[in-house]
Amino acid sequence: MPQPCHVPVLVQQVVELFTPCATGLLVDATVGLGGHAEALLSAFPQMHLVGLDVDGQALELARQRLAPFARRAELIQASYQQLAEVLGPRGGKAAGVLFDLGVSSLQLDTPERGFSFRLAGPLDMRFAQQGPTLADILASATEAQLTFWLATWGEEKRASAIARAILRARDEGRLCSTTDLRRAVWSVTGPKRGPIDPATRTFQALRMVTNRELVDLPAALETAVKALQPAGRVVVLAYHSLEDRVVKTTLRRLSGACVCPPGSLSCTCTPMPLVKLLTRKPVTPSPEEVHANPRARSAKLRAAERL
Ligand SMILES: C[S@@+](CC[C@H](N)C(=O)[O-])C[C@H]1O[C@@H](n2cnc3c(N)ncnc32)[C@H](O)[C@@H]1O
Questions:
Q1: Is 127 in the pocket of ligand 1 (CB under 6 A)?
Q2: Which residues pair with 51 in a beta bridge?
Q3: b/e for 223-248, b at 16 or more Cβ within 10 A?
Q4: pLDDT at 76 over 80
Q5: What angle do CA 14, 15, 19 make, to 5 degrees?
Q6: Domain-located, residue 114
Q7: What is the number of structural domains in the chain?
Q8: In what order do the strands lie in the sheet with 25-28?
Q9: 112: in domain
Q10: Distance, CA 79 to ligand 1 centroid (Å)?
Q11: Cα(59) to centroid of ligand 1, in Å?
C-alpha cells in the first residue's frame, strides 16, 4: 500500500530560517511524517535532529522516511509539553525548535482517526490516540460548553444553533460518526456551496478541544524559547487565525512587548525580552505553493531569535 505522504508547508522558508542553526541540535516539536525534518537533515549535513510527536503511527512513518539520516535523527513519542524533559539529558539547550501545528495528511486522510468530515469515521480526533475521544467529550457536553467551544475555537458565527443541532442529534442517537456530525452542522448551515465546507469550523474547534491545542500552546512556546541557546531560533507554522494570534501574542510577549489589553491604565505584564522577532508580519505561502498543496492555504509562519 502506498505510504501517506505529507508535503511540508513553506519548507524552503523553514530551511532558510534555520541556516544559522546548521551545526546544532534542532528539535522538530511536531515531526509528523518527517517532511520538514527530511528537508532540514538534507540541507544541513551537520545538524542533529530530535523529532517529537504524540502520534505513534506518524512516528513510525517518520522513522521510515528519515532512515537515511538515522545516525543524526532521534524520534521520540512525546508531547512538545515535555520539551524541557527531553532536552535535559541531551545538553539542555537547542539551536532551533520548529512547531508545525495542526493536523497531518496521515491523520486527515485516515478515516478511522475521525478528523475529516469528508470521510466517514468514528468521533475520535485524538492526536495521541489515548485519553477521551471526541465522542466521550460530546457525550457529556452541555449546550453552553459546546456553544463556547464553537464560538471561541472555531470562530463560528452560528455557534449556538449548531451546538443545539449537535446535541439534538446526540440525544436522539443520531451522532455516531463524522458524517453524522457534518449532517448536524449542515442542518443549520445548509450543505457545501463554495470551496469551504460549512462544517470546517466546527471540526476544527472540536479537534482543538479534544487535544487541548491552544490551551497548551503558549506554555510550550515559552518553554521552547527558554530552551534555546543564544541566537537559537524558534519557527512556528499555524493554520488558523486564532492559532496564529496565540503564536503572535506569545512571541510578542517574549520579545518584551507589552501585551496588556488595549485601554489598560498601566502595564501589568512586566515584559522581559528573551527573543527578537524575525517576522513582523507572518510569512505566507505563494499562490504556486497553495495551488500545488491546498493544505498550505491558511499557513502563517512566525519566527524569533533568542537574545
Ligand atoms: C502538521 S503535522 C506536522 C507535519 C510535519 N511537519 C511534516 O512535515 O511531516 C502536526 C503534527 O503535530 C503533532 N502534534 C499535535 N500535538 C502535539 C503535541 N502536543 N506534541 C507533539 N506533537 C503534536 C500531530 O500529531 C501531527 O503529527
A1: yes
A2: 28, 75
A3: bbbebbeeebbbbbbbbbebbbebbb
A4: yes
A5: 120
A6: no
A7: 2
A8: 73-77, 48-53, 25-28, 94-100, 228-238, 300-306, 275-277
A9: no
A10: 9
A11: 10
Same domain flag for 175 and 225 = no
Using the structure block, give the residue that is written with the C-alpha cell 504524540: 54
Buried b (16+ CB within 10 A) or exposed e, 285-301: beeebbeebebbebbbb
Q: Which domain holds residue 32?
A: 11-106+213-306
**Does the beta carbon of 41 sit less than 6 angstroms from any atom of ligand 1?**
no
Position 90 pLDDT exceeds 90: yes
Question: 254 with 275: CB under 8 angstroms?
Answer: yes
Letter for the amino acid at 283?
Answer: V
If phi > 0 it is left, if psi is from -120 to 50 it is alpha, else beta; for residue 276 that is beta
pTM equals: 0.94
Which three three-digit cell numbers place residue 146? 459546546
